[in-house]
Design a protein that fits this description.
- The chain is α/β, with parallel strands linked by helices.
- The chain is 47% helix and 10% strand.
- It has two domains: 268 residues, TIM Barrel (Alpha-Beta Barrel), CATH 3.20.20.70; 115 residues, no CATH class.
- Strands 1-2-3-4-5-6-7-8 form an eight-stranded parallel barrel, surrounded by seven helices.
- The protein starts with a helix and ends with a helix.
- Bound molecules: zinc ion.
- Zinc ion binds next to loops.
């Protein structure tokens, strides 16, 4: 038995007693750069998220989302530029004055006019951005490097003089010239910018490129480093994680990942990633049980469903289906779960309505339904469920009907059909399956045990209630 198995067994039968990575043999050696246990979230649902195709947030909705994010405990909430529209400007003022614990930021172009407008709304900090890639310099704003630096320094000096935080970010950083980038960041660091930002605006970066760039930047600037990753190739959360490993300090997220095109790291996915890395740290910072509420709120506001494969709150995020998984999960959840659903106020679910089910899952369902049967009887019942699942697709309710009817037949010495609404073809197919089952040696043994228990001059009631079992024979099956 390996160390892992031993340690897992010692976790106890029903709950995660410590977080799962305690038993992870491949844990990387921590290095002095890494901030995976020391980071802050800049939540951009109300800025990046407003660029999502389906997003239209009125003032009331923005306030509700800001409060929900504050309840969750994000450190920063970033808002759409007050220069975008008069309503956007007013919304900045309103949210900046809600008295939230989170610091309020707004995201503007790197020029004095926008910076002034931002400061006047009463936000805690201003995030400025300018395109630095050759594509943007050529086709978008047409400004050269010395102009970018001169403007940036002017804006930074001004915002700092008002006592507010100021972040300077490039845009499309991973398609910008490295020497240009480092010259700009070094210049703004020297004049005391609060944070510099790296933005993978087009979602082109790989985790390794992110690690290299952030590590290089870490050697050039003293200020904090914020990272913004788009998810065009599904790397956004991995990139954010690598950025922290390389010394970044702040990560941009949005609820459900909504944003321009297919968005940025989702708040829930990023938090899941970080929780597995350092459960105590993440639990101490964030009110994890509020995640579902803020996701539901945003999903509703932008009229989308929470994706089925969403980390944590996807409908099957904690559903265990294969018989072998179900058995292990019922014995000790840490076997197939690295996240304890209870940390998020969620529940695990052992799927029992399929041909992949095992008798442990059915036993657990019988317990939930309050039906006492012996192990051998449950095994018989499981065989029926699996046979029926080969004949037709089973819903949970169907499976409950089968289990209940099986129990009823057992108790009343009857042989009623396990499902009422079978078509003649399904009936025939099921009868064939039952016949096949009876010919199998394993099934034969189980039937034998059930029969022996029944013939032990006990009533079906006593048998079904589990008062009388032939322990030895049962355990042998
Ligand atoms: Zn973006």
């Amino acid at each position: 038995m390996g160390l892992n198995e031993k340690t897992l067994k010692s976790l106890g039968p029903a709950e995660h007693t410590e977080h799962a990575h305690a038993t992870k043999p491949f844990r990387t050696v921590g290095d002095f750069l890494s901030n995976v246990s020391n980071f802050q979230i800049i939540e951009s649902t109300l800025r990046e998220g407003e660029q999502f195709a389906n997003a239209f947030f009125d003032t009331e909705t923005k306030i509700r989302i800001a409060r929900a994010l504050d309840d969750f405990g994000v450190e920063y909430i970033e808002l759409t530029s007050p220069a975008s529209s008069e309503q956007s400007r007013r919304d900045c003022e309103i949210i900046a004055n809600l008295g939230l614990k989170a610091k309020i930021l707004t995201h503007v172009r790197c020029n004095m006019e926008d910076a002034r407008l931002a400061v006047e709304t009463g936000v805690d900090g201003v995030d400025v951005v300018i395109g630095t890639s050759s594509y943007l310099r050529e086709h978008s704003h047409g400004k050269d490097l010395s102009y970018i630096i001169k403007t940036a320094v002017e804006v930074i000096d001004y915002v700092k003089s008002t006592g507010k935080e100021i972040r300077f970010s490039s845009e499309d950083s991973f398609r910008s010239d490295l020497v240009d980038l480092l010259s700009i960041y070094s210049a703004v660091d020297k004049v005391g910018v609060t944070r510099v930002g790296i933005a993978d605006t087009v979602g082109v970066a790989t985790p390794r490129e992110v690690y290299d760039l952030v590590r290089t930047l870490r050697g050039v600037v003293r200020c904090d480093i914020e990272c913004h990753f788009h998810n065009d190739t599904g790397c956004a959360i991995a990139n954010a994680f690598c950025a922290l490993e390389a010394g970044a300090t702040h990560v941009d997220t949005s609820v459900l990942g909504i944003g321009e095109r297919n968005g940025i790291p989702s708040l829930g996915g990023f938090v899941a990633r970080m929780l597995v890395q350092d459960r105590e740290y993440v639990k101490s910072k964030y009110n994890l049980t509020k995640l579902k509420a803020v996701e539901d709120l945003v999903a509703d506001a932008v009229e989308v469903n929470v994706p089925f494969n969403n980390p944590i709150t996807g409908f099957c995020a904690f559903t265990h289906k294969a018989g072998i998984h179900a058995k292990a999960i019922l014995a000790n959840p840490a076997t197939y779960e690295i996240i304890n659903p209870a940390d998020f106020g969620m529940q695990r679910y052992v799927h029992f309505a399929s041909r992949l089910t095992g008798w442990n899952a059915i036993k657990s369902r019988c317990d939930q339904l309050g039906l006492d049967m012996t192990d051998a009887q449950i095994k018989q019942c499981t065989a029926k469920v699996k046979a029926m699942a080969d004949v037709r697709k089973l819903a949970i309710e169907d499976t409950d009907v089968i289990i209940n009817q099986f129990y009823h037949n057992l108790n009343n010495d009857q042989d009623k059909p396990l499902l009422e609404d079978l078509t003649p073809e399904e009936k025939e197919a099921f009868a064939k399956k039952e016949k096949e089952l009876d010919g199998m040696p394993e099934m034969d043994k189980i039937n034998h045990v059930v029969e022996a228990q029944t013939n032990g001059q006990v009533t079906n009631g006593e048998l079904a209630s589990g008062k009388v079992t032939n322990g030895e024979t049962t355990n042998g099956v």
